[in-house]
Amino acid sequence: MGPVMNAVYNNYLTAYTPKPLTKYDAHKKSELRSVYNSIVKLNKDAPWYLPTTSKETQNYAVDLKENARGLHNTIAQLGGLEKDGLFSKKSAYSSNEDIVEATYSGPEKQPENIPEIQLEVRSLAASQENLGLFLPGGSSSLESDSYSFDISINDMNYEFQFTVSERETNREVQERLERLINNSDIGIRASLVESEGRTSLRLTSEATGLPSGKKDIFTVSDHHTSMTAGAVEYFGLDYVSREASNAEVLINGQGHTSPTNRFTLDKLFEVQLKGLSPEGEPVKIGLKTDIESLTDNVSHLVGGYNEFVRAASSYLETQSKSRQLVHELKGIASVYHNSLHTMGLNLENDGTLAIDQDVLQQTAARSSDITETFGSLKGFSNMLLRKSRQVSLNPMDYVEKIIVAYKKPGNNFPNPYVTSAYSGMMFDGYC
């Protein structure tokens, strides 16, 4: 995904449904070829529609696609893409999740006698922050001219050019620089800080930790820029208000550092540092029992399903065909209603599932064959996978559209019309 496309996509995701990327968002050539063939077949049989121009409808389609992707990744992360994987996925525990979150990332066939790990967090990895001068919001004292400055990050230099016109205020120029830097997508986020009627431009690196052999993640200067210099000094963009730093931890009493707050322990646990440990009180990390792991997997599956249902339901009053999707999701749960109920999963009137943890744990504890007892749950997750793939492939199927003409039966040719409308509308008004 190129810088421009990434900026377009993030613009929608930031405003509507930001979803973290996972390893399941990367695909093999064969998988991409399969998606392409599905799109060709879909477009070949679809009638002609009028283009969708409503911004609300466009945002709705993006939202549906992202929530479908989120549900697919939730099932994938639980092992739902492999045979019986949903029942064997192991879960990790952390004795204090306010300080450290832990997930199991080791092999499916876990080594015997995995020891408990003790982790003490001494400091968190921090990003670099440059805080500019707080300037009055009135007219700028910077002379009308064309300026430029350089930002060096990741061994790359980026030049930013802008023009200051007469009667332009400090705030207007700062806001323009904020947009200019954010839209460049170079790994630095710009934001305005306001205090007592004055504003400052703050630059924060997306990365944390110190690069090897360096003191800074990024630098700002206009010493060798191509246009007029002086903007860096005027706005104070080169002042480092917070230096980047590595995380410092004790793992089983041994000191270690990490440039990020997320890393892997012994190729078994992925941990996310969230806070500092009281001295001498390490966080204990290990594997949950099989029953606890199973109930965790069920809870995450239900959580992903419920999130998808709620996302679709939020558009019931504004998008008429969202009702169709909610009805289909309810229908999938209804097929397995009786078997889900016996394991403590109850279908609510709004289509979501409520979990009775006591019944779920009792069912898992007294089961002699987990695969047989929870076999219906595997079928339920498979149907959800198929539905998430369908919605992700063509969210426009749940958008109210005006049909222009049906194609002549038996003489249809592939065309890029239907799903390309989804891709194109993300660029509409942007390029």
Q: Compute the number of helices.
A: 13
- Uncertain segments are 1-9, 12-17, 427-431
Residues in helix, %: 25-40%
The count of DSSP E runs of length 2 or more, i.e. the number of strands, is: 20
Secondary structural class? alpha+beta
Bin the strand percentage.
Answer: 15-25%
Measured between the Cα atoms of the first and last residue, the distance is: 16 Å
Shape, principal axes of CA atoms: globular
**What's the alpha carbon Rg, rounded to whole Å?**
26 Å
Average residue pLDDT:
84
Largest sheet: 5 strands, antiparallel
Strand order of the largest sheet: 2-17-4-13-14
Task: Draw up the topology in text.
Layout: H1 3-15, H2 29-45, E1 48-49, H3 55-77, H4 85-88, E2 92-94, E3 100-104, E4 117-123, E5 127-131, E6 135-136, E7 145-153, E8 156-164, H5 170-184, E9 188-195, E10 198-208, E11 218-221, H6 231-235, E12 240-242, E13 247-251, E14 254-258, E15 262-265, E16 269-273, E17 283-287, H7 290-313, H8 322-335, H9 337-342, E18 345-347, E19 353-355, H10 357-365, H11 370-373, H12 375-393, E20 403-405, H13 418-427
Antiparallel strand pairs: 1-20, 2-17, 3-16, 4-13, 4-17, 5-10, 5-12, 6-10, 7-8, 7-11, 9-10, 13-14, 15-16, 18-19
